[in-house]
Amino acid sequence: MKNNLNLIYIPAIVSAIAAFLLAFTFSSTKEKIEEAYRQEMLKALNIVLPKHNNKPDQEKVELEGKEVYIAKEDGSLVGFAIKSKSSKGYSGDIDILVGIDKSGKVSGVEILKHAETPGLGSKIETDSFKNSFKGLGKSDKIMVKKDGGIIDQFSGATISPRAVCEAVTEAVRFINDKVITNSKISGGGK
Amino acid sequence: MRFSPFIDGLWKNNGVFKQVLGTCPTLAVTTSVKNGLGMGLATTFVLICSNAVISMIKNIVPSKVRIPVFIVIIASFVTIVDLIMNAYLHDLHKVLGLFIPLIVVNCIILGRAESFASKNSVFSSILDGFGIGLGFTLALTILGSLREILGNGSIIGINIFGGSYSPAIVMILPPGAFIGLGFIMFMIAYFEKRKKN
């Protein structure tokens, strides 16, 4: 009888101790992890946005479920940044951050998360690829050359650049159609 | 010999090359030296902790429920490593993040808990965890360097061949992992057999 009870309370005690340790680790690393993600986001925002001196991650507005980060220089609006994603990558979603200046043209693109093939699709992380979007606007064909657009694909990897193009296009459309025309956000400002 | 569990673990019982265990992380993360090393060290940490704890409680855990108890212990340490790595080694975590939870199902760890830690003293279990863990790290680093050199033309991120070298991309793709591991195991078997004769 005693042995049978052992079968219950030994695993229970071990699990309880494990739960306690996990809770302790979680609560002591929580802030640090959030800070790391915030720094990462801030770094990406600084790369994609035009020159600004406010804190875009604190001045964001929500529009149709999307967060739009607003960049200002001395209080006047200079651009927006928005997260965009494509599920058409080679493996998993590609999350990107697109910066767009106040005239509606792309000021920068940064890849936040991807799981593309190292050495092939992962070249979407190179600066030369990311910079090829700079200055493009709503009327430009943001597509890979294979699809009749103006963005260079890589030899052996068309799918990943195509997915990034799709995500950038979506972001450019959204900002141009919904944000710039929205007087509450781009009008007078704060 | 007092330190023999460590030496045995490092080479004679090498998890990857000799027992062919833990091949999932071995094949999946070794696209570069850095990834292999990071994964190996994370696994080593989990292995040492789980071996130590399991050896401590080996006499009070009824054998009928030992596997679930071991898994709870291993999973807890893996989650702790995951959180700590995310907080303090954020960039490495971004690369390895997907594979860290997989340490739980690495047969090497449960294998050592079953075959070593549940039968030996705490001290030799820690040594065994250390040896097996470093052996695993060594294997991952060797495979990682082979694949990074051939497949990316670099080592630890530093380009070694200059611009004119066009890398054999297949080596950093999944087939390259199998080719690389097979080749290394062939070399080891070949030289050990020759030494014996």
From TrEMBL, chain A:
Its main location: membrane. It is a single-pass membrane protein. This is Ion-translocating oxidoreductase complex subunit G. Belongs to the RnfG family. The complex is composed of six subunits: RnfA, RnfB, RnfC, RnfD, RnfE and RnfG. It comes from Calditerrivibrio nitroreducens. Keywords: Cell membrane, Electron transport, Flavoprotein, FMN, Membrane, Phosphoprotein, Translocase, Transmembrane, Transmembrane helix, Transport. Its cofactor is FMN.
From TrEMBL, chain B:
Keywords: Cell membrane, Electron transport, Membrane, Translocase, Transmembrane, Transmembrane helix, Transport. Its main location: membrane. It is found in: Cell membrane; Endomembrane system. GO terms for cellular component: endomembrane system; plasma membrane. It is a multi-pass membrane protein. Pfam families: Rnf-Nqr. It is an enzyme of class 7 (translocase). Part of a membrane-bound complex that couples electron transfer with translocation of ions across the membrane. The complex is composed of six subunits: RnfA, RnfB, RnfC, RnfD, RnfE and RnfG. Belongs to the NqrDE/RnfAE family. This is Ion-translocating oxidoreductase complex subunit E.
